[in-house]
Amino acid sequence: MGAALLDGLAAVISMFAQMIQLLVIASVIVSWVGDRSHPIVQMIYNITEPMYRPLRRFTSRIPGPFDWAPMVLLAIVILVQKVLEAMLRGYAARGL
Asked: Where in the chain are the domains?
């Protein structure tokens, strides 16, 4: 693969991860102040809830009233994003 292709793939991964991060932040905000009957709020929930569901199996064991699934998802997305970008840019720098 060419270096430009690998850099482009890293950029696409970065944009996708940033979109997920924005949706997670939006879902947290609308959970506090949003009208659940509004179509945009429903769209945000329809996108984020399937990502939260598997995480809630583990985070539901944490005591307290706070939902940790969004924070865990953000951490996972950022970690995966950084690792994939570093790998792809490393391959591009070596000319693989």
From this structure: 3-94
pLDDT tens-place string over residues 28-45: 999 888 788 899 999 999
Q: Which residue has the tokens 């270096």?
A: 3
How far is Cα 4 from Cα 7, in angstroms, rounded to an integer? 5
Do residues 31 and 94 touch, judged by C-beta distance below 8 A? no
Element (DSSP H or E) covering residue 53: helix 39-59
For residue 36, what are the contacts with CB-CB under 8 A and spacing of at least 6?
42, 45
- Two tokens at 2? 């060419």
Residues 62-81 have a mean pLDDT of: 93
pTM of the model: 0.84
